[in-house]
Amino acid sequence: MPKFSHDLSHAAQLDLLERLTRAALTEHYGFDGAAAAVEVQQYEDNAVWRITPPDHDSSFVARLSIRDGRPAHQQRSEMRWLESLASAHTVAVPDPVTTTSGHYVVPIEVPDHDEPATLALLHWLPGTAEPPYRRPGTAQKMGTATAHLHEHAATVHLPDFDRPVWDAQTILHHGHALTGPGTHEQLGADGTAALRKVTELITPALEEGGPTDRGRIHGDLHRENMIALPDGGVGVIDFDDCGTGHCLLDIATILSSVHRIAHNEPGGYEEFARGYLDGYTQVRPLPTDFSRLLEPYLLLRDAFILNFVTTAAPVNADVASWGPRRIAGIVVNMQAYLEGRPYPGALGMHRP
């Protein structure tokens, strides 16, 4: 078997990882991995496939974490939350599958790879990624799904939940975009300066909020991590970045992701935001000082993206194909914010 190397092409890396995953499905889950139908979904920090074993009517998601992955104990926390959410039946999520010996996470040996690799398997959530936000009622359902995640976090205790803390210190002050080697070249001098100034300005606002505003959050709740279900509902997938933090980070993330595709449609984003927030408040109140704090969390979301891109682009050809353009756009938006313009997605709200 070839060795994993950054010198391998993107396709060759993925081919090697698929073979390792097929073998693990046979060894640990009792499936015929060699005969399973495999469809790649994504290959960035994780390699993700849709798996349909022979003689199965349903499919599964295999996620092989190979780069910057969460340690196994943190992935087990993620799986326990998903299991609890699935059993609550308030929002549709992928239900984890344990191995034949009852484990959530399997270590995988990747030849000549210098980071631990782990495999998790989940039931496939049927539907279509990225719900059609313009369809009547969809925005409200996306808001309701978000609120159910937060309400579950507020009302269901999960002992030993050990996941990243998504706050100003983690994302901004200690984030890769400001502290990682080589990021100055990726952001440029002006971009680095803008990010440092934004960090200084918004940190006080990001430190606000009481216990009801913070808890378990998805962490990466953009529109493509929501699923339009066959019954007309909306589900949520990809909890790989789940952690603890302010609920506004999830809300800002979905609003920002829709703004990116709807802002050129007159009134389209504003209409979506109204529907989404209406759906959210049907389940639980908006976080304290929502209208004042949304803008800092939109900026925090983009800093989160900068951390991801500056980490992944040097080692992943797919991210490298779009990452520099994304960095440039975020830098322009941050510079405009520092000049006094509202940040994209801010709904005309005043600053803290």
Automatic annotation (TrEMBL):
User: Would you tell me the protein name for this molecule?
Assistant: Phosphotransferase enzyme family protein
Residues in Aminoglycoside phosphotransferase domain copies: 45-286
Classification via InterPro entries: Aminoglycoside_PTrfase (IPR002575), Kinase-like_dom_sf (IPR011009), Pseudomonas-type_ThrB (IPR050249)
What family is this protein classified in? Belongs to the pseudomonas-type ThrB family.
